[in-house]
Amino acid sequence: MRQEIALLLIILLLVIAEIFIPKRRKVSIVHLSVFLFGIHAIVGFFEIDESTLFGGMFRSNNLIHFFKNVLNIGVLILLLQSADWIEEKIVNQNKGSEFFILLFSSLLGIYFMISAGDFLMFYLGLELSTLPVTALAAYETMKRISSESGIKLILSSALASGVSLFGISMLYATTGSIYFSEIVQALTSTNLTLLGMVLLFAGISFKISLVPFHFWTADVYEGAPISIASYLSVISKGAAVFILMIILFTVLKPLAPIWENMIYTIAIATMFIGNLFALRQQNMKRFLAFSSIAQAGFILLGLIEGSQLGTATVVYFVLIYIFSNLAAFGVVQAISLQTGKERIKDYEGLYRTNPNLSLVLMLALFSLAGIPPVAGFFGKFFLFTAAASKGFFLLVFLAVVNVTISLYYYLLVVRAMFLRKGDNPIPFFRNKVYMRIGLVITVLGILLLGIYSPLYDYIYDLSSALN
What distance, in Å, lies between the first and last C-alpha atoms of the chain? Predict the structure, then answer.
C-alpha cells in the first residue's frame, strides 16, 4: 500500500497547508501540489513485492503497480496543464487547496478500486473515486452550465452505483462470497448470475461511457472545467477499463462465451455512435467527448480477446490514449484560458498565429485516429490483432470502417487549423512554464511510444499476472 499511503500523506499535507498558509500566498499551494505529486509519481516506479492485505480484500502485483504508475503520469500531466487555470481562476476564489484535495481523493479511490480483491473494496473504491469528481465537475460555481454538469454527473453516478451494487448482491446470492478468488470457483450459469453480471457490467460501463450508458458524457464534459473533463476522459475511464478487465478475465471468466457476445454488440454500437455523433459537433469539448466514446469502443476489441494478449493490448492502448487525449485537451485548455474560445470554427488559421499548439493538436488527433507512425497506430493495431486472434474478423472490419470515419472528423479540425483563414483568428500567445512542460511530455509520449514498441513486450510479460 505504499502508493496509497503516500497519496494520503500528500492529501493531509495539503489540508495542513490550507490552514497555515496565509491568503495572500495561497498560490504557493499550486506549486506545492505539483511538486509533491511529481515526487510521488517518481517514487511509484520503485519496485514493490506482490502482496495481499485485509484477508485478500486488497492486493497488489506488478501489473496493478505498473498501471497505477501509468495513471500517476496522466494525473501529473493534468496538473501541469491545469496549474495556470487554477492560479488565475480558482486561487482568487480561495478554492485552490480543495481542488487538489478532491482530485487526489478521487485518485486514491481509483487505487483502491483497481487493487480490490473483493467486491466490498471495489465498491468503496468506486464511490471514493466518483464523489469528489462530481464536486469538481461543478467547480466553476459562477457558471450555470458547470452546476448543471455536476448535477447530471452525481445523478447518473448514483444510478450507476446502485445498478452495480444490485448486480454484486446477485452474484453474492448465487456464490455465497464477495471475494474474487472464491466467486470464480462457485460461479454457475444460472439466470440470477447472468442478471448480476449484466447489471455489474452496466454500472462499470457508465464510467467508461459505453453505449447505451453514454448519454451523460457530452453534457458533463461541456459544462465541467476542461481539466476535469480530461480527468473523466482519461484517468477515470482508464481505471474503469482496467477493473472491468480484471473482473471479466478472472471473476467472470467461466461466463466468457456469454459476455463475449455482449461485448461484441456493445463495441459495434459504441464505435459507430461515438464516431457518427462526433461528426456533427462544433464545440471542442463535446467533440472530444464523442471521440472518447468511440475510443472506448475500440478498447473493447482487446477486452473481447479475454487472455494475456487482450490484457497487454488494453493496458498498452490506455497508456497511449492518456498521452494522446491529454495533448488534445491541453491545447483546448490553453486556448480556452487565453481567449475563452472553444468552437472548432475558432481554430481556423491557428497555425499562422500559434504554430506550436497547432502541431501538438495535430499529433494528438493523428494518434487518436491511428495514423502511423505515431503511437495511436500501434495501439489500434494491437487491438485489432487481439480481436482477430479470436476469429472476430467482422468486428475488426467494422472497426477499420470506424477508423476511416474518425479520420474524417479529426481532419476537419486539422483543416481548420492549417488550411482555413479565419476572420478573427486566435492571436499569438505564450503559455506559461507548467503548460509547456505538460504539452512537451504528451508529445514525447506520442512519439516515443510509436518508436519504442518493445514497451508492449514488457507489458505483455506483466500481463501474465491476470492469466
Answer: 23
